[in-house]
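Team,

Forwarding the record for the chain on the shared tracking sheet. I've put the sequence and predicted structure together so nobody has to dig through attachments.
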Amino acid sequence: MPAVTPGVDADPNRKILLAAPRGYCAGVDRAVDAVEKALEHYGAPVYVRKEIVHNKFVVETLTKRGAIFVSETDEVPEGARVVFSAHGVSPQVHAEAAARQLQTIDATCPLVTKVHKEAVRFANGDYDILLIGHDGHEEVEGTHGEAPDHIQVVNGPHEVDTVEVRDPDKVVWLSQTTLSVDETMETVDLLRKRFPNLQDPPSDDICYATQNRQVAVKKLAPECDVVIVVGSANSSNSVRLVEVALEAGAKAAYRVDKADEVDPEWVKDAQTVGLTSGASVPEILVRDVVTKLGELGIGRVEEVRTATEDIIFSLPKNLRADLKKAGYQPDRPHKVREPKGR
């Protein structure tokens, strides 16, 4: 990202504080890459159940390349190839796909898969599982489907008083991976007051990328007249970033899908604008917002880095195997090259 915006009349005394890390996490990168590689290798169409990630631009781009997004498995023609989104699916969805003889590519984020496995393990131990998350979110639906008789969803602190369990000594909490860390822990603290023996998950369920993006926003927000978050309305982690910015001291915060949604009135009197993006947002959309802010008179770009991410997830196993059979040997996860001599 350039240190100076491209705006001709941009004022160098007005600046953008650009959060880092921002944008694609490893799970999103893997899921999007899986659809792209499937289209390249198998050819269009490739069906995708739900949005592969919660970002309009990504979905529109993949649609143009030949991906067909559907809401339910029964919309996929029998025997066709379907990719399951990064948010994960329940065992019932896997069974439905098998019944229709679909060729599946499971692009579930490995961190979501970890939560699924935790749910199964605690259900096998006959625990009541309190899943902190948002009803209706695909990730929550997938996790709940792993053990529906043992899991109840807690949407936030306001629902804690209504929770009922069979045995207060056999209760554990899990969470959706894309929540606000602070709000989740507030919910957990209230649950623990009701159930003092509440068990924690074996490791953090809120993903590293969600936490890192929230920490970066917390650092820059107190200095900002306004914070702009690039991300779609159905992206849980993007919506949380707006809330985190306001809670951390930003005077105002807004979410946009793309640069042309930035209202000049938001920044006309701002000396410092914070900028970040949700974990499903490609960097090109952030660059477009930087350009837009330059056109609106903001001249400098300063990065505020709080962590460096180097996590990479492998492509889904069956897709990797098919690529290798066709003569492609991945150098490393998601980087596919042609072998020498081709």
